[in-house]
Specification:
Layout (H helix, E strand, L loop, with lengths): L9 H23 L7 E6 L9 H6 L3 E6 L4 E5 L3 E7 L4 E7 L3 E6 L4 E4 L7 H4 L2 H5 L22 E2 L6
Parallel strand pairs: 7-8
Antiparallel strand pairs: 1-2, 1-6, 3-4, 4-5, 6-7
Length: about 160
């Protein structure tokens, strides 16, 4: 194995793990459908390589697009790096191909769960040092006491919030 860096890129690994979680969820939905009140809002970068959408959709959503998997969707297939789904746009079924690397957000408002994927400049992994991690040890991150916390609406969690 060739050593390519002096640091472990935890941020990229976390993003990969969360994309894997979404892939697993979509595989389950493809097999058994959406349980209960679950539904997903999925936003993605329409300019990302590998995204395949109709030209008229790309014209309407030149940078990003949010789709909803809830009442009507068809042909949901999941591969390791992308998923395929057909959605209805004004009585016009349109097939979509969305690579997991193109995802920006994934939200299931029925259970107040959300993820946000931030784009990181490639040099971030190289500039992170052990000293930067030492400045904010995990002991300083205190969990919120759920009994005292006010009830909040669905929250999208940015994984970058945990990076230094």
């Amino acid at each position: 194995m060739t050593k390519t860096s002096d640091t472990i890129d935890y941020g990229s690994r976390m993003h990969d793990a969360m994309r894997g979680l979404i892939a697993d969820l979509l595989r389950d939905v493809a097999k058994t459908g959406l349980p209960g009140d679950h539904h997903f809002f999925i936003s993605f970068d329409t300019r990302h390589p590998g995204v395949a959408i109709a030209d008229w959709l790309r014209d309407r959503y030149p940078e990003d697009m949010t789709i909803v998997l809830q009442h009507w969707f068809d042909g949901l297939e999941v591969e390791d790096d992308r998923f395929y789904v057909t959605l209805n746009f004004g009585d016009s079924p349109e097939p979509l191909v969305i690579p997991f690397d193109a995802l920006r957000t994934f939200v299931d408002p029925s259970v107040e769960f959300g993820l946000r994927f931030e784009e990181r400049p490639p040099e971030d992994a190289e500039t992170q040092t052990a000293e930067a991690v030492e400045e904010a040890p995990f002991a300083e991150i205190e969990p919120e006491d759920e009994a005292d916390a006010p009830r909040r609406d669905a929250e999208v969690v940015s994984l970058d919030k945990f990076r230094k």
